[in-house]
Design goal:
222 residues; alpha+beta; GTP Cyclohydrolase I, domain 2; Jelly Rolls; 5-stranded antiparallel β-sheet; 34% strand; globular
Amino acid sequence: MESKHADWILLTKIAFPCIVGMNEDELRTPQALELELGIGLDLDAAFGGELAHSVHYVAALDQVQFIAEEGRWRLLESLAGAIARHLLREPAAGEGRAAIDRVRVRVGKPGYLAGRAQPFVEIAREKSWFGAAPSAPEPGRTRVLELQHTRHSGAYHVDLGRGAEFALPDGVCALVLSGRLERDNGRELTRGATLRGGESATNARDADARLLAVGRPLLAAL
């Protein structure tokens, strides 16, 4: 059930270069991308000073930038949809944030039309738009949930049950959202760590883990 309060956490004037667009010059040269993000949830519980009842906006910013930079999205619409679905899904245990009721994403390429206009896409969605998400996988199993899929790019949540291993295909990168994973060499991966194509991670702990995987269409590569 969505909360009765329409509180917001706002991130404005987010800007960084990345590959985004359909034209040849856009696919070859990074351009400035601008984002505005509104995260809606009931903040009553956060008044007491516990960040777990709110959203860590630095982590949210890192995740949104990861989706944008690693996706090489052709359309702003696809990027906006991937960001919205990622944020609206119920957080994994240990992710360190509260569930979100609604999200507003505004994304644009302000310099692309050389001053003639500033193209932006803005979407607003509520939790019910995401739909029902599957439960955590059984021990030893991995579940891939598609957030956004196009012919060229995709964004996914990869949930690893206890003891499960996941190998990233070439062209896919992953960001650890929750859990404590191990690389092939035994080094630990904690929240915020990244993996690249060709690397693998094992959930050797007692709790489930979640990755945010972005890049080439993942399900076709498995």
